[in-house]
Amino acid sequence: MSQLDMFSESPKRGETIKINHGEYIYIPDFYDKVTADSYLKRLITDINWKQESMNMYGKKVPFPRLTAWYGDQDKPYSFSGITLDPNPWSPGLVKIKSDIEPKAKVKFNSVLLNRYRNGSDSISWHTDAEKELGKNPVIASVNFGAERKFQLKHIETNERIDILLKHGSLLIMQGELQHYWKHQIPKTKKEIGERVNLTFRVIK
């Protein structure tokens, strides 16, 4: 059975899905629509969003999305040639963190937020396997706003898994997944609204 076939059979809500070198949990309705709508509005207006840039061939290229880094004050995060110093936790982020920690079975100390303003905003293939995240990091992804396709691709076999991340959903990636699977949010030509994604992490 291919990974795509396994996903298409709609596993039970919150079930751990074991895949080749890793596992994940997907809960499409972790938050109800009213709660998710409220969080989306608050996150868009209250978060200290920034247009960061990456270094590419000696030039600074803007990320095709807005980002923000929040967490414990001694937990900076480095990726794509930049280092982000954390903003202090907001009450809303602390509440979301406390909601997801029992399911993830992890106490998170930081969160990276990405704001996709339309279908042209995206994030390319990458892994969350930076040294400061530890050996087999647990990454909890909370999603508000427009539905976007989340793609996983095995580094060695090129196996693919596509998951439609719904408004109010929770995706937990764990085990060896970050060492063997890349993931991305591709661009789409569909006319869609904004999406805010929060990926909670533990910085060692």
From TrEMBL:
Q: Which UniProt keywords apply?
A: Dioxygenase, DNA damage, DNA repair, Iron, Magnesium, Metal-binding, Oxidoreductase
What InterPro entries would the database entry show? AlkB-like (IPR027450), AlkB-like_sf (IPR037151), ALKBH3 (IPR032854), Oxoglu/Fe-dep_dioxygenase_dom (IPR005123)
- In its keyword annotation, does this UniProt entry include Magnesium? yes
Recorded superkingdom: Bacteria
Cofactors named for this entry: Fe(2+)
Keyword presence, DNA damage? yes
The protein, known as: Alpha-ketoglutarate-dependent dioxygenase AlkB
Biological processes, Gene Ontology terms: DNA alkylation repair
| Species in which this protein is naturally found | Haloflavibacter putidus
The GO molecular function terms of this record are:
catalytic activity, acting on DNA; demethylase activity; dioxygenase activity; hydrolase activity; metal ion binding; oxidoreductase activity, acting on paired donors, with incorporation or reduction of molecular oxygen
**Where would I find the Fe2OG dioxygenase domain in this sequence?**
107-204
